[in-house]
Design a protein that fits this description.
Layout: H1 2-29, E1 36-40, H2 47-63, E2 67-71, H3 78-86, E3 93-98, H4 99-108, E4 121-129, E5 131-135, H5 143-150, E6 156-159, H6 165-177, E7 182-185, H7 189-197, E8 203-207, H8 208-216, E9 221-225, E10 255-261, H9 267-281, H10 284-292, E11 296-300, H11 302-326
Parallel strand pairs: 1-2, 1-3, 6-7, 6-8
Antiparallel strand pairs: 3-10, 4-10, 4-11, 5-8, 5-9
Helix pairs in contact: 2-9, 4-11, 6-11
Length: 327
């Protein structure tokens, strides 16, 4: 009888321990169970860095875990793209990038770009912006004077990286204006802006949010926004159509910033991330910050985001071919 009681007690303890282990195991399986890292392929102060650091606290708020932004700079953001692509598809390593830049990076750097945009897990698109050409206030009063000067000598125009989208925008500007620039690549818009402030370059092609505060304070002068019509971010700055360029030749591809995961991410984890991103974009506090920056929110679900990729891919390749021929 005593043996039966001891045995019964042992069995109870065994199942109790198993139950506790099961609960612990279930907690470990819950996602996310640790911080999520978002890789940014550009240096601090550029548009992509500004965008992700603005929304990161709100992603963290709705994800329930810390969100760490890591600037992994190099090769025009290719190193960050490669690292994200090769990461474990567990949802803990993500990438923030311009969709169009992912495509052009893969196109131009086929020997170093080990990622494939089509295979990435599209999670959510955040915003869209237009490129802007800015100069130092001491240099060129307007876009017209800038182009006239470019006809007499090769002006130095900075871009956020060789073969990067801002490089493509400069190639389109050369195509429209029938001039050639001395293109100077930087590792992001921030270093390019620093060089412009020191008058080491004549102008910088960058993304709207990179230049916004500098334009507002009068530290740099906006010359041209490459868009089909004037933007809310820079309503006072002319676009190509204002300057007499043929609208048929000024088809502009916007700069969209979104979040991606490695290939073959588990659908249930991708959905958790997509849901948190969708809530973060709609957070009133975040929306107010974006409104002050006059940036267009462009929220797209994973499905919509991938559809944008499919639609824009042939257009991007067309522009990339123009850039390739211009070199």
């Amino acid at each position: 009888m005593k043996f039966k009681k001891v045995f019964a007690a042992s069995v109870c303890v065994f199942f109790l321990v198993c139950g506790m282990l099961g609960v612990t195991e279930g907690k470990e399986d819950a996602f996310p169970a640790k911080p999520v890292t978002i890789l940014c392929g550009y240096s601090a102060g550029g548009s992509t860095d500004i965008q992700i650091r603005t929304i990161a606290p709100y992603i963290q708020k709705y994800l329930g875990r810390p969100v760490v932004v890591e600037n992994f700079v190099g090769a025009g953001s290719i190193l960050a793209c490669n690292k994200a692509f090769a990461a474990e598809p567990d949802g803990y390593t993500l990438l923030v990038s311009c969709l169009q830049q992912l495509i052009t990076g893969e196109y131009f750097r086929d020997t170093t770009a080990r990622y494939r945009t089509r295979e990435m897990t599209f999670l959510y698109n955040l915003v869209r912006e237009s490129p802007i050409l800015v100069t130092h206030p001491d240099l060129y009063p307007s876009f017209k004077e800038f182009i006239e000067a470019a006809k007499t000598k090769r002006l130095k125009v900075g871009v956020s990286g060789k073969w990067e989208m801002t490089h493509l925008y400069v190639a389109l500007l050369e195509h429209l204006s029938k001039v050639k620039f001395n293109v100077i690549p930087f590792e992001g818009g921030g270093p390019g802006m620093t060089s412009l402030m020191g008058k080491h370059i004549d102008a910088l092609m960058t993304i709207g949010s990179t230049a916004y505060n500098m334009v507002r304070s009068g530290q740099v002068r906006p010359l041209l926004v490459e868009a089909t019509s004037r933007t809310a971010q820079y309503p006072q700055v002319p676009v190509p159509a204002d300057l007499g360029y043929d609208p048929k030749e000024t088809q502009i591809v916007l700069y969209t910033t979104g979040i991606y995961g490695p290939p073959k991410m588990a659908p249930e984890r991708a959905k958790i991330l997509e849901t948190a991103l969708a809530k973060a974009v709609k957070d009133p506090e975040y929306m107010e910050k974006i409104k002050k920056m006059n940036i267009d929110l462009y929220p797209q679900s994973a499905e919509q985001f991938r559809r944008t990729y499919e639609q824009e891919y042939p257009v991007i390749i067309k522009f990339a071919e123009i850039l390739k021929k211009a070199q």
